[in-house]
Amino acid sequence: MNNTKIKLCGMRNPSDVITASQLGADYVGFILTDGFRRSIGLGTFCELKSYLADYGPQVRKVGVFVNEPIENICEYYADMLDLIQLHGSEDERYITDLRAKTGKPIIKAFKIASELDVQLAQQSNADYILLDSGTGTGKAFDHSLIKSIQRAFFLAGGLTAENVGKAIENLRPFAVDASSSLETNGIKDKSKMAAFVAAVRKEG
Fold it and tell me: For the purposes of burial, counting CB atoms within 10 Å of the CB of 49, is it exposed (0-12), middle (13-18) or buried (19 or more)?
């Protein structure tokens, strides 16, 4: 039994986090840097966090940031998060400084398009790495590139209820991460969320 973890990302509404909690997601992600379609502000995050306290206190809260000043993360968000995910061009020094100042585990996302990208991901000093095709593209990358990767990773990019089982079987990721595929017309869809979680549990 692989016990693959599940991260559902891009939470924006109370129903999103309540559904994720009821389905037994291990992690929920919130886009906390401005300028992205699924970005939310501090007030909305605090509201959604309160629903998690009631419905899913065991679910770990992941704040997703893109080239965010460390001071902003520390001042406004760090104390309310369980993990911090970095999806920009943050370097090793940034990761080290952020972890030292927040005491939180760091997930660093890498866009995988070549073997060099895989090498860079493997060498990262982040606590976890996340392998993706881009930033919220909803498309998969060439999974053959990571067949021999030597560390645990979150797998993202184009995962759906239909293909996540095969991805888990072939790659045995530590966790799988979905956002776009869980939506209908840009809004999280409970049935798609449930189907994705069921597919992971069946295989993982």
Answer: middle
